[in-house]
Design a protein that fits this description.
Keywords: ATP-binding, Nucleotide-binding. The chain is mainly alpha-helical and 235 residues long. It is built from nine helices and four strands, in the order H-H-H-H-H-E-E-H-H-E-E-H-H. The strands form two sheets. The chain has a two-stranded antiparallel sheet. A two-stranded antiparallel ribbon has the order 3-4. The model has no long low-confidence stretch (mean pLDDT 82).
């Protein structure tokens, strides 16, 4: 976990976690090169209201990653998909167990396009051009002035729900005797997929036979059947 001072300077922490996340992805030849920057001076400006739930923290992490890669002359070494995965894990070092939709949107976004983002079986972002109409469509984003500081409320709201889902996943796994798949994190470590989705896919494999792939093509009937199993096996 990256620690920082509270107050007006805490946004600088997102730059720090971006660097920490990228560090293991840069080869020694880049990190020790004579041309590497010894210091980086950064000026950040924006008009998004703080804690307004408009994905500003994800955008800050992604932008910081781009700045670091450019400064080290290593932009070509990390593709967009890897950068999204690194940004997702990096932001969690701040102390918020975020998902990955915001980071992926910041990296793969295309002007005048909607973006369909899928994480299974792998991260895939598909832009879809908005149809031209007359008069042109407009999206209105309104600030409700309700502040949502996830760094402060995370332990009792945001992170708590993540912990509850992991506990439910583990309880179902043991109750149903399921073996979960593992994945390689952005830092290169093997980690078990303790998620409701992984439990569902593992359970579905027991119904369909081994070798059932997660193609994101589950049916409503399958989901309803699993929901019934979960309700019967969770306290």
């Amino acid at each position: 976990l990256i620690h920082h001072d509270e107050g007006s300077q805490r946004w600088g922490n997102y730059f720090a976690v971006a660097w920490k996340g990228l560090h293991s992805h840069l080869p020694p030849s880049v990190l020790s090169a004579s041309t590497r920057p010894r210091t980086i001076s950064i000026l950040v400006d924006g008009s998004i209201p703080p804690e307004s739930s408009l994905s500003s923290s994800a955008a800050m992490t992604v932008c910081s990653s781009l700045v670091i890669l450019e400064a080290f002359g290593a932009r070509s070494l990390v593709d967009r998909t890897e950068m999204a995965e690194v940004a997702i894990e990096s932001e969690r070092l701040v102390g918020v167990n975020s998902g990955g939709m915001d980071q992926a949107a910041s990296i793969f976004g295309v002007p005048s396009h909607a973006l369909h983002i899928a994480f299974k079986p792998k991260l895939l972002a598909t832009p879809t051009a908005l149809p031209p109409i007359n008069p042109p469509m407009q999206f209105v984003i309104v600030n409700t002035l309700v502040v949502s500081d996830k760094k402060v409320t995370g332990p009792i709201h945001y992170n708590l729900r993540t912990a509850e889902l992991r506990m439910a996943s583990r309880a179902l796994q043991r109750r149903l005797g399921l073996k979960l798949p593992t994945h390689t994190t952005a830092s290169g470590q093997q980690e078990e997929d303790v998620t409701i989705r992984s439990i569902f896919r593992a359970w579905l494999a027991t119904q369909q036979g081994a070798g059932s792939e997660d193609k994101g093509d589950e049916t409503e009937e399958q989901l309803n059947a699993f929901a019934k199993v979960a309700a019967e096996n969770l306290p």
